[in-house]
Amino acid sequence: MAARQDILDWCDDTLQVTNFSDYAPNGLQVEGCSKVERIVTSVTASFAAIEYAATQQADMLLVHHGMFWRSEPVTITGWKKQRIATLLQHQINMVGYHLPLDAHPKLGNNAQLAKRMGWIVEKQTGEQNLLNIGCLSETQSLTVVAAMLAHELEREPIVVGNNSKEIRKLAWCTGGAQNFFQQAIDEGVDAYITGEISEAQYHLANETGVAFISAGHHATERYGVQALGEAIKSRFGVELYCFDEQNPA
Ligand SMILES: [Zn+2]
């Protein structure tokens, strides 16, 4: 059993939350009970994740995608009412860490994806250090790189590029970071990996010869929140459950 505030303070400090400018509040988003014994992690604070946390009698739902995004309607109606009502009814603290959890050099989504894939991190750069530059331990064809992602993330990626292209130098940013592609191209990489693709990146990939892999927003961002949950567990001795759902996006 740990005090909620101690966990929040530790997370804020570890993730250096004050260094980021974000689109949603980082930290406690919906207040529940003041003591925490059981935490459920999830990529998103979806109703399915909240229901699972309630079933597990969790005191905290720890997520990467919380609520209250800058562009979101502020009224508490419909799906948002349903989510918040269920959290309040079960006194579940809903805690979200967004960009600080993408960028953290050890627990972050980018770092955790690299760890799973065996990619070597050379530097973090770009907007709020969200773009990672690195390389494969040995040169592989684009087909092999894509197949390794499909295997590890259990999701078939969208690949734009010459399948036989030799890939060594990489850039990546998990989630919806297709707009960092130009910067990745400027870094002189062979391939850029992110979670989503928009129409423009297809042409950019073809015209520059830099391969683009869209490996899934959810799929590329599964591991940061799990790593944060594990770190909280070992620091505070709480129980930890990981919720995952099949999200094709
Ligand atoms: Zn995301």
UniProtKB/TrEMBL annotation:
Q: Which GO terms describe its cellular component?
A: cytoplasm
- Similarity comment: Belongs to the GTP cyclohydrolase I type 2/NIF3 family.
The UniProt entry, under PANTHER family, shows: GTP CYCLOHYDROLASE 1 TYPE 2 HOMOLOG, NGG1 INTERACTING FACTOR 3
Give the highest taxon in the source lineage: Bacteria
Detail which positions bind a divalent metal cation 1. Answer: 65, 102, 217, 221
Give GO MF terms, alphabetically.
metal ion binding
Quaternary structure and interacting proteins, as annotated: Homohexamer.
Report the protein name in the record.
GTP cyclohydrolase 1 type 2 homolog
What keywords would UniProt list here? Metal-binding
Species whose genome carries this gene = Neisseria wadsworthii 9715
Q: Which residues bind a divalent metal cation 2?
A: 64
InterPro entries found in the cross-reference section: DUF34/NIF3, DUF34/NIF3_sf
